[in-house]
UniProtKB/TrEMBL annotation:
Keyword set, alphabetical order: Lyase, Metal-binding, Zinc
Species assigned in the record: Marinomonas aquiplantarum
Similarity field: Belongs to the Gfa family.
Residue span(s) of domain CENP-V/GFA: 5-121
Protein name as it appears in the record: CENP-V/GFA domain-containing protein
Length: 135
């Protein structure tokens, strides 16, 4: 079922609309995702055949391609937020889940590349939870 989603970067200069369906939702713990996100994993949605439209700020998007792998990242040049990649050669759009402003009706399906996760990345959801910064 085709769905409509919207998203944007942190500073708001880059925004997009996506029409399509998310088929896969992976949390990737590889070293490249760890470096680029500064945290334990990237949360990426994969939408084959989806249509991505930049509604603002396309000129602010920059790309990084890792020289030794397929890893690529698109990000806002002002705030550094990850934004979707329209991987036309692969016929799909890769959307960083955190860039979405609309809600998802799909849950993460798998943690991948756990073999190269950080040694501190273990049962992170067992740490105590607070609604805001604890005092
Ligand atoms: Zn931005
Ligand atoms: Zn990764």
């Amino acid at each position: 079922m085709s769905q409509h989603h919207t998203g944007s970067c942190l500073c708001g200069q880059v925004s997009y609309e996506l029409t399509g369906e998310f088929k896969k939702f992976f949390l990737c713990h590889c070293s490249r995702c760890r470096k680029t996100s500064g945290t334990s994993h990237c949360a990426n949605l994969f939408a084959p055949g989806a249509e991505l439209t930049w509604t603002s700020g396309a000129e602010h998007i920059r790309f990084y391609r890792h020289p030794d792998s397929n890893f690529a990242r698109a990000f806002c040049q002002t705030c550094g937020s990850n934004v979707p990649i329209d991987a036309k050669a692969r016929g799909l759009v890769v959307v960083p889940a955190g860039s979405l402003d609309s809600d998802l009706d799909i849950k993460a399906q798998a943690n991948i590349f756990m073999g190269s996760k950080g040694n501190w990345d273990d049962n992170l959801n067992q740490a105590p939870c607070f609604d805001a910064m604890p005092s």
